[in-house]
Amino acid sequence: MNKQRIVQNVAVNKSLAEVLKDFFGFTKFKGQQEEIIDSLLGGNDVFVIMPTGGGKSLCYQLPALISEGTAIIISPLIALMKNQVDALRNFGSVKGIAHVMNSSLNRMEMEEVKTDLISGKTKLLYVAPESLTKEDNIEFFKKLKISFFAIDEAHCISEWGHDFRPEYRRLRPIIEIISENAPIIALTATATPKVQSDIQKNLKMVDSSLFKSSFNRANLYYEVRPKTKNVIRDLIKFIKENEGKSGIVYCLSRKKVEEVAETLQVNGVKALPYHAGLDTITRVNNQDRFLMEDVDVIVATIAFGMGIDKPDVRFVVHHDIPKSIESYYQETGRAGRDGGEGKCITFYSYDDIQKLEKFMKGKPVAEQEISKQLLNETVSFAESSICRRRQILHYFGEIYEQDNCANCDNCNHPKEKFEVTEDIRNALLAVKQTKQLFKAKHMCYVMIGNDNTDIKTVKHHLLPIFGVGKDKDEKYWMGIFRQSLIQLLLDKDIEQYGILKLTDKGREFIENPYKVIMAKDHDYEEADDDSIIVKKESKTGQAGEEVLFKMLKELRKEISKKEKLPPFVIFQDPSLEDMCIQFPISMEEMHRITGVGVGKAKKYGQPFLDIIKQYVEEHDIVRPNDMLVKSVAKKSISKVFIIQSIDRKLSLDDVAKSKGLTLEELIGEIEKIVDSGTKLDINYYINEKVDEYNIEDIMEYFNEDAETDSVEDALLELGEDDYPEIEIRMVRIKYLSEVGN
Ligand SMILES: [Zn+2]
């Protein structure tokens, strides 16, 4: 389907090379440029699929210059048109050689353009699709000699492209009215097989010469990481590891862009926001400062990047998952344009997918269907443990032959593998038995034997294959279908996108299966705590942190014996864990450790600092010392307000009410303050609310019986009928304040 029709390269066309040198200053054509130009000059319709940076525009600029008449270039990007026209005028000496025609021209300018066109001076005329389809323009164009039409950004024709423009659908009939014989060259930097087929059909170019360059960007490194509640910390950490390098962080919403940019700034990263909601001056200014390397990082919505070309962007981070693999490819494609390093990191959580699905509500059903399909493919991509590069290229209809690209997370850290030959065969049989009419999700239900209404309606619960894979879950079977697609045993129908069809290879596989090995999919939901990332990235390695953690626990035990206090009163486990991540070596840094306030740090901190300092020196640890994420959002009620209120012995019920909290929520805030080492005397309140004997019992429990300060344990031990949770929590606060802090 995607085989390139190789156009014979008939002898070296001297004049082409000369124009290339004289006009553009290049000595050599890039990739297939010369074949493409030859074919167009030979009067053929030509379809060019070439990734950004491949030299697409030259494919129509050069032939336009040496052809008789004017080439009409249709492009949706006004800024890009202007750039090209300026560049062409600079190359040549005649101003009229290239023009833009759009609604921004005044009458005089329009007259000038028309005069140049009629006199034959103009070789390239750039028009927006809206201008081309205007009635009086059509009449005017009919009088001109047109050398050919170029349709740039041709993926705008397809609803399946990431940039659909309805006016693009009307281009073909209008072109036919203007000039019957002029050939067409359609160009796009991105096209999946589905988009490609849409373009070819709409432009009546099914039989035209197709030139498709490889979409492989070998220098880009692809990685998908779990997105946890600590995503911002992980992001800062990544940026700090790449200090001084240029990078783009993409977020889905303007609000997120602002928030992330601000958080990066207060954490010492030179970052600026960019989104369509900023006024033009700020936006242009921020973009320029990024281009001039006055700032390192631009935090942006996807509005950023169109038409800017910074060759040395070293990383692109997706804070939120993109809406389609195509967007992912375009956005990550902005990294490493110069062929140098380009790290592409995506933070993924299924929650984000659900958010995106919510945005679709209210849109036309057909559009929703398309978006949903594209989103499903993105989920597949993220969760799969198949080589990322291979998946991306497969998406663009290209086969990646190598087993291991050595430049993606899945290749560098392969997951556990197992044989799936029989399962794949069963999956293919299921597709066959259901007459190749259903999408992957439905097929998974068939495999696991889910007899829902849809299944029953089409009587699939009666098929021999029904429920054959019920010992595995839906997710597993999704992986099997995905694998079958990548292996080219199945194909997605182009017309009814998403419906699975058997390929010849797949039919052959059913008869003569060969051994297929598959790696386990990622399960990002399980990766909810941050330990995975932190450990993986730690310079010390997992073992090192564990050793330090043990040392700190030992120390805590010693102190607890000496002070005759339970260990958790000294520092709780999360605090020790945080010390093993942040490696504080000064008292000031100690204050910033989770659950460690000034009081606690002063009381117990020093011996811990000593051990950590020694450990850091001995093990040559690179400390992520700026890693403590300073937050810009003020979510909870102010700590100071609570402390002052308690000092004034205000009723906690009133304090809670004045801040719109429940008593439980307020107690939660007080617990946080006390856990971080501040003393709070709430006896005035407890004595009034809690039975005297209860107070005594609970205090005794924490003093003598308790192994942890957990409220749940206390509830179990004491019995919640006699001791309500809220009472235990309040007395625990009393205990920690009096004994611990
Ligand atoms: Zn790979």
Explain what the structure shows.
- By secondary structure, the chain is α/β, with parallel strands linked by helices.
- It has 5 domains: 5-212, P-loop containing nucleotide triphosphate hydrolases (Rossmann fold, 3-Layer(aba) Sandwich), CATH 3.40.50.300; 220-412, Rossmann fold (3-Layer(aba) Sandwich), CATH 3.40.50.300; 417-525, Arc Repressor Mutant, subunit A, CATH 1.10.10.10; 530-619, DNA polymerase, domain 1, CATH 1.10.150.80; 639-740, Arc Repressor Mutant, subunit A (Orthogonal Bundle), CATH 1.10.10.
- Helices cover 49% and strands 10% of the residues.
- The chain contains 35 helices and 17 strands.
- The strands form 4 sheets. A 7-stranded parallel sheet has the order 3-4-2-5-6-1-7, sandwiched between helices.
- α18 crosses α21 and α24 crosses α28.
- The N and C termini lie far apart (73 Å).
- Mean pLDDT is 85; it is low at 1-13 and 527-543.
- The site of zinc ion has 7 residues, from α16 and α17.
